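Hi L.,

You mentioned the student needs an example of a multi-chain input paired with its predicted structure. This one should do, with 649 residues in total across all chains.
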Amino acid sequence: MKDGSALKLLRSSWVYSFLHPFLKGQSPSVQFAFGLARDAYLKRKPVAFTSLFFPTELVYALGMIPFPLEVIAGIVSSLGVAVPFLRKAEEEWYSQDLCSFHRLGIGLALQGYLPQPDAVLSLTSLCDGSHRFFYNVSHLFKVPHFLIEVPGLGREQDREYVSGQLKRTRMELEALFGRRIQQSQWEEVLGYSNSMRAELFKIYALQSQTPCPVSGEAALGNVGLIYTCAGSKWGPELISAWRESIERREDAENYRLFWLHLRPYYPAPIFAFLKERGVSIVGDELSSYIWPELNPVNPEFSLTTKIYANFGLGPIQNRINNILRLVRERKAQGVVIFSHRGCRQSTGGAFLLKEALKKQGIPCLILDGDCVDPRELNWEQMRTRIEGFLEIL
Amino acid sequence: MNVYCGLDIGSLQAKGILLKGRSLLAKMMLPTGGNAPETAQKLFQALLAIGGVSPEEVQSIVATGYGRISVPFATKTVTEITCHARGIFHFLPQVQTLIDIGGQDSKAICLGKGKVMDFVMNDRCAAGTGRFLEVMAQNFQLSPKELGELSLQAKGEVAISATCTVFAESEVIGLIARGLPREEIARGIMSAIAQRVAGMVNRLGLKEPVAMSGGVAQNPGVVKALEKELGVNILIPPDPQMIGAWGAALIAQENE
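Structure written out for the whole complex:
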């Protein structure tokens, strides 16, 4: 693996000590990201590479650091430096049809830009390609891969099956790191997750207001945080700080749209353009993820309930019903499905979603694109589609 | 003086319409070239000269097409999707599905009383666009229209399997080199475009009557292939290339 100068900086304790004083006054999300990078690259704690939908509460309870590779790919893309890593993966025969989040993750791994993990944890929930990607990563770093298989239907036996796998994974990880999760740790970790959940409800209430004061770009940008912070003390703090940063909205609101799936993370004019047109993104499906309150008495079963609360899992009708509910609650006039290339679970249902929305008289725009690969952006075409859609509204 | 202007600055051609009330005062088409703002200005001046009006007499200008943001003197910009819908409603108000094949993109638009209900555009590549047709025609040393006419003489069809313009070009060169009947290859090219466009129409749900606008609507080979693929008759308005500009001018008038 190559070791460039940027990588040396990431692994230098001096850099983190130097930057530490400048963190004062920074937003909690910056402080959280700083701490996560420092602890992972300096190996202050065992590192677990996690898939986006893995319940991070288990990772925090074990005293590990979750390093969410898909979120990292989004961050790298937002810094405008994704292409060399994507190209590296493609040069190593990773197909361009593979999800670019995963291609970028592989590129980062191949170039040596990821910390050395101690374990890889992933779910088969929602993202079809992720478990094979994470298997690949575990092979590359020669660390064990713990895969939780999640049957889509969520019947009682499915939930027991998932809960049993979580229990077994927990026990194997406890044995691997020679530590046992105490009941008090479960209480603390699940307590943070529940507080974060309560804070998220306050954000959703704001998103239903007219005009909507919450920036859709920020909400979509916070998806990674919501999934990574659950179970950490930072979780409620981050969401609370986000809420406090939301200001009363003065400009005109011309359109209210609900967003499905994720957004382009690389620098692109899309959100500035929407803002200029007075468009509010009044919510998105991935940051509108609400799970039932977690119970530390039976933590694994509780986490299973949380996994199944994600309405993207299971029959498409589940996703359709929840989206129709959210569109109603948020008073959205239309829906944008950002159809991320390579994402089978999201694009596969686009037609049925569009049909269901059409029946309710809700216009829907399927916007084909890519979340992290800027080479896939054809802004002129995308702009015409968005403008054409707004003209319909 | 109630004069209104619609400018459709497309990727290949810039089209302009000047209306006085509902009557046509002037129409004009120029190649867009590499400088869209300059072309738009030239087009506007030419329309004024033909119509015999001064710029001050023009009450509103709507710009559309890919170059719509390159018209600094426009009162408003509107997408070509809405403009083509408005334009076709003026000429053929009964139309429910509109196919617009332009220089570098193609669109299927579902209409309800002249309003856009839904639309779909081609994505990622130039297959099914005017540019695809131009590239193919070059291999025969014909114009796109001549290639379309040639395809009508075919008794059979040679299938073109590649959808990528570049790969389809090499496939066509190979077929010509093998000595296969030129008209049958031409028919295959028309079918390839028709299949691509019909796929978009079917995504929206085909509703009759169907009309076609944009430059490619003047190509008899493409129209025939599309009619066969969709199993419907396609209505062609007069001057199909000007429909977007007509729509823009009518919107300019209605916005006043």
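You could point out the following to them. The longest strand of chain B covers residues 23-31. The radius of gyration of chain B is 19 Å.

Best wishes,
N.
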